[in-house]
Amino acid sequence: MNIVIINGSQRKNGNCERFVWAAKEILERKHSVNVFTLIDMNINYCSGCLKCEEGMECLLHDDFAEILEPALMKSNLVIMATPTYFNMPSAAMVNFIDRTNKMCDYFMNNKKKCLFYLVGQTDEQTIMEAYNCLHTYGEIMGMEEILDPIITVSRMPKGITQDILEVLERL
After folding, report:
1. What is the pLDDT of residue 55?
2. What residues contact residue 141 under an 8 Å CB cut-off, 6+ apart?
3. What is the pTM of this model?
4. What pairs with residue 80 in β-bridges?
5. Is the CB of residue 142 less than 8 Å from the CB of residue 111?
6. Rounded to an integer, what distance in angstroms lies between the CA atom of residue 15 and that of residue 143?
7. Which run of H or of E encompasses 6?
8. 14-23, 58-67, 157-166: lowest mean pLDDT where?
9. For 60-85, how does the pLDDT look when each residue is reduced to its tens digit (9 = 90+)?
């Protein structure tokens, strides 16, 4: 299986990054895994021109078009890891989601699986509001969630818990 992991965190060595690298280490034992940290990439904001919806090429030629889009097309499973701010995914993750608009038909016709990891410093219920954004995105894109979201309530970075490691081992 080809797995793409999207790290939507702006924080180095934070909970999302720790999850992403633990997931990569475990999953690459059985699968091909590519990790993309959005803040390390040159990804422009969608201009809303809608050329992609008319079947035309996107006007933006950046790391999304050159690197992420081909990787997503080859993937079977997309894992998205994001911190939550104001009950929403990070701005980097929202920008990533916006840019995948051009891939909606492709995703619908080439069923992908997805898994969401969210972390926040409030409480699980509040983090679930951010998850609802990702869940709706997955539905729009025709993706099948393979597991319930993995949620961490923590302000400061902490180690990946044994239960999270066990979930990853089952993939």
Report:
1. 80
2. 100, 103, 104, 107, 108, 112
3. 0.93
4. 6, 116
5. yes
6. 25
7. strand 2-7
8. 157-166
9. 999 999 999 999 999 999 999 999 99
* CA dist 9 → 30, 42, 146 (Å): 26, 15, 22
DSSP state of 58: P
Instruction: Take residue 161 and report the two structure tokens written for it.
Output: 């818990």
Q: For 95-144, what is each residue's pLDDT tens digit? A: 999 999 989 999 999 999 999 999 988 888 889 999 999 999 999 999 99
- The owner of tokens 């969210």 is 118
The CB-based long-range contact list for 49-53 (8 Å cut-off, 24+ gap) reads 52/101, 52/102, 53/101, 53/102
Copy the structure tokens of residue 59. Answer: 């006007």
Distance CA 76, CA 72 (A): 8
Closest to 122 measured CA to CA, from 95, 88, 93: 88
Residue with tokens 């809608």, as numbered in its chain: 50
**Closest C-alpha to 164, from 77, 75, 37, 79:** 79
Spell out the SS3 assignment of 140-171: HHCCEECCCCEEEECCCCCCCCHHHHHHHHCC
